[in-house]
Specification:
With about 325 residues, the protein is of the alpha/beta class. It has 10 helices and 11 strands.
Length: about 325
């Protein structure tokens, strides 16, 4: 083919239809008329000489050729966005965008503090924070949709060669109790005392629940013996439940600083046990790294990292954008961490 048989606008329309499930909703999301969308699809199918949609059902379903074009189209559009961000960098942090990813706990309690510090120094940079499961966040970094991320769960094995994964900080998990609980009067409790408590926990399928169970297991604490009275779907709900006297819980220390200061929760030490998990910094070394991302990495990340953290690994030379970076696709994801 001497000329490309599609335009960027046609790829955007194809992606919108696939996301919205209908030509009409795609047209609404793009602020164009439905006939204009239909015409662009007809032109695209004529230029490619293949049908892209199965029009027999109520919902717009992609054909095999449609799925193939969408897969490559999303990568092309991602590179276009990356190119625009690189050009914005020529303004030397007088604009541009920083996109940071995080898993649930780090995104709720740690990243807002870091972003606040960055915004004070670079108010003209637009900052986006994407909070999702570790798996979804890792794929977003691999695909170039996120500059860098701090996560607490396990990186998908299939991304081990695509991502740089760095041990960043230790996140301590604390046992919290209602302030009026009898154990709150003790200086420390023993491991065996844990099995006398009623616990509030996250859903058993959530990533952070599994991480907590693994970390406690390494401390020779058998979470299978815990009396879990209630499962909730957020850290905030768990803190409120503990504060109301419904039970005890293990949560990140970063999530309870305000409550401890106000005296509405009690943190109870366990004799001979310090429960910690590792937080990981991840980025894609083969993707363009904006000046905003460089500034965030060099000026903000070290302030929250482990002592002796080696930030030199982040001082990577900018690499040319090449098509070989278009190897990853977006998977499904679930869980919380």
């Amino acid at each position: 083919m001497s000329d490309l048989p599609f335009t960027l606008d046609q790829l955007r329309i194809l992606k919108a239809i696939a996301q919205e499930g209908s030509f009409k909703r795609a047209a609404d999301s793009l602020y164009v008329s439905q006939p204009a969308v239909s015409l662009q699809v007809q032109n695209l199918e004529r230029q490619l000489d293949v049908p892209l949609f199965d029009r027999g059902g109520r919902r717009a379903q992609l054909t095999e050729a449609g799925h193939l074009l969408l897969s490559y189209g999303e990568k092309i559009l991602s590179l276009c966005q990356e190119t625009c961000r690189a050009i914005e960098d020529l303004q030397n942090l007088q604009g541009g965008t920083l996109i940071v990813g995080a898993s649930q706990t780090t995104g709720t309690y740690l990243l807002p503090r870091m972003i606040g510090m960055f915004r004070q120094k670079y108010p003209d940079v637009a900052v986006q924070l994407h909070v999702h499961s570790t798996r979804r966040t890792a794929w977003s970094v691999a695909n170039g949709q996120v500059d860098l991320a701090i996560i607490g769960g396990e990186i998908p094995g299939e991304l081990s060669e695509s991502l740089e994964v760095i041990s960043y900080a230790e996140d301590e998990l604390a046992l919290i109790l209602p302030v009026f609980h009898p154990f709150a009067k003790l200086e420390k409790i023993q491991k065996e005392d844990l099995y006398k408590l009623q616990f509030i926990a996250l859903d058993s399928q959530s990533t952070i629940r599994k991480v907590i169970d693994q970390v406690l297991g390494r401390c020779e604490i058998d979470t299978r013996r815990f009396k879990v009275e209630m499962e909730l779907n957020s850290i905030e709900a768990i803190k409120n439940a503990v504060q109301s006297g419904l039970g005890a819980a293990f949560v990140s220390t970063s999530a309870i600083a305000k409550e401890l200061q106000m005296g509405v929760l009690h943190r109870t030490p366990i004799e001979g046990v310090v429960v910690k998990r590792t937080l990981w910094l991840i980025f894609n070394p083969n993707r363009y790294r904006s000046k905003a991302a460089e500034a965030f990495s060099q000026e903000i990340l070290p302030q929250f990292a482990n002592p002796g953290w080696n930030q030199d690994v982040l001082k990577l030379s900018q690499k040319n954008i090449v098509l070989t970076t278009l190897e990853v696709a977006t998977p499904t994801s679930s869980g919380e961490d």
